[in-house]
Amino acid sequence: METNPPSLAQNLAQQPLKIALLGAESTGKTQLSQALADAARQRGLHAQVVPEVLRQWCDQRGRTPQAHEQQAIAHEQARCVDAAAQTPGLDWLIADTTALTIAVYSEFLFADPTLHPFAATHQRQFHITLLMGLDMPWVADGLQRDGPQVRVPVDGLLRQALARAQVSYQVIYGLGEQRVAQALRAIEAAQALRAINAAQALRAIDAAQAQIVATDSIAALAISTRAVSPFDLNRHPLSALCAQCGDAACERHLFSALLGRAC
Q1: Three-class SS of residue 45?
Q2: pLDDT in tens, 227-256
Q3: In angstroms, rounded to a whole number, what is the distance separating the alpha carbons of residues 214 and 212?
Q4: 3-state class percentages of the chain: helix first, strand second, coil last, to nearest 5
Q5: Pick from 11, 12, 85, 96: which is nearest to 49 by CA?
Q6: Max Cα–Cα distance, the chain, nearest Å
Q7: Which residue in 159, 165, 205, 243 has the most C-beta neighbors within 10 A?
Q8: Of the CATH numbers 1.10.357.20, 3.40.50.720, 3.40.50.300, 3.90.79.10, which one belongs to the domain with range 8-198?
């Protein structure tokens, strides 16, 4: 049985809400990611957390990565996010850090800013970015954490990287349920904005499709009233912009193009 491919509207509706959690070490990213996933499930939503690749990398090797190993970790973090986004029926995708964090630490630890362009491009794919505030107490966690003294400079570098990437973000403060509640309010606001943007996009798509139909109808009428050779159509493409009105669907322009003269 033949099935029609999904429409653009369906594709927009099927994409999960992508939530990025960023922050310096020991700012509660992992704890918040799990709490948000639990909150989503309580609402009947399908949520998935993409874990931090760096943590797994360090656990497997028993050491922290060197400068030349940062790029592979950043790309793997992005790949895991992209793969999870393809999960059927997924409502919320929650990334417990992103490639941007790796780019910032690569700059901070090794004076290497080369990961920023890739990381910024990938960060812009998220619908909302939550930046963890520094109000949580620092807690040691094996190989991954360098000490409380690095949190302020790393937080500053993250803010600078987000500004350069033109990514808006919400800073999340509070402890326990207060932190979760603030994050949920930010996500709800992002969902509302996403719904508005999707509706505007669909209206624009509908208008463009209507314009295409109108253009085809006008062109068909013009051709039916005058014998036009393929050479004429190639020489005067119907998609060219009108020199005076700038509207490619303008009836006056289409007829003028077919007749070989300007408006």
Answers
A1: coil
A2: 444 444 344 443 444 444 444 444 444 444
A3: 5
A4: 60, 10, 35
A5: 96
A6: 81
A7: 165
A8: 3.40.50.300
